[in-house]
Design a protein that fits this description.
The protein has 143 residues and is an alpha+beta fold. The chain has one domain (24-131). The protein has helices at residues 33-44, 50-57, 62-79, 84-89, 92-131, and strands at residues 2-13, 19-30. Strands 1-2 form a two-stranded antiparallel sheet. The radius of gyration is 23 Å and the shape is flat. The relative contact order is 0.08.
């Protein structure tokens, strides 16, 4: 993780209330792919919550962490097929430990998907009640 200075323009007001653009210098954190994979692995270990990870690494929000999880966990699962022969060569204790870690990772992914599904349901219910329009398809309707 490295920091980079960024110049931002913000709208300010002088003592008379007249608006003007002011440039401020802020620091932005830049993460390499290795950093992102390490952060995702730390979250998947289950010792810290997403909020704690966000605060520790100065991420802009939990969604950044979850998008990294989507990207790097999918890439990891795609590359697993090539290493099956290596897995057979490992001793049973190492294999059990790896499978337990994989199980925890999949449980975390399942929890994230359950939360996502609940958020979508809530969003649909709110839209249906607020705008008084049916969004969900009624069962038994013909095409």
């Amino acid at each position: 993780m490295e920091t980079k200075q960024v110049v931002k323009s913000i709208l300010s007001h002088d003592e008379n209330g007249h608006p003007f653009w002011e440039e401020i210098v802020t620091e932005k954190y830049v993460f390499s792919d290795e950093d992102k994979i390490g952060i995702v692995a730390e979250y998947n270990a289950g010792k810290m919550t997403a909020t704690q990870i966000v605060e520790k690494y100065h991420l802009s929000g939990k969604q950044v962490l979850f998008s990294w999880m989507d990207r790097y966990l999918r890439e990891e699962s795609l590359s697993l097929g090539a290493s099956e022969a290596d897995d057979m060569a490992k001793n049973p204790d190492e294999r059990i430990r790896e499978l337990e870690l994989e199980n925890r990772r999949l449980q975390k992914a399942l929890e994230a998907e359950a939360l996502r599904a609940k958020a979508f349901d809530t969003m649909i219910e709110l839209a249906e009640s607020k705008f008084n329009i049916p969004i969900r398809k009624k069962s038994g309707t013909k095409r």
